[in-house]
Amino acid sequence: MAKMKRSGHFFVYILRCRDGTFYTGYTPDLTRRLELHNSGKGARYTRSRRPVELVWCKEYRYFKRAFSAELKIKKLTRKQKERLIGFRSD
């Protein structure tokens, strides 16, 4: 089994799914991960909610910081996530 890289580039991201819900994740390769989500090979949650759209991301240098940020974002309410991404429902 390959050892996971602990430093470099890690992205925490929020996707808006077709049904309007949000999905949060992290990855070292954002482009590839978005392709996986939209091809139905990403997270189980997004498979039936395609297409998904990237609405927010932040880059981190260390895995641990990215992972911690992902967990914090997942605990936010929908309203808090909307504020984070600058969502407007005008």
Your description of this structure?
By secondary structure, the protein is α+β, with helices and mostly antiparallel strands. It has one domain: 3-Layer(aba) Sandwich (GIY-YIG endonuclease), CATH 3.40.1440. Helices cover 38% and strands 29% of the residues. It contains 4 helices and 3 strands; from the N terminus they run E-E-H-H-E-H-H. The chain has helices at 30-39, 44-47, 63-74, 78-85; strands at residues 7-16, 22-27, 53-62. The chain has a 3-stranded antiparallel β-sheet with strand order 2-1-3, with helices on both faces. The longest helix has 12 residues, at 63-74. The radius of gyration is 13 Å and the shape is globular. The model has no long low-confidence stretch (mean pLDDT 92).
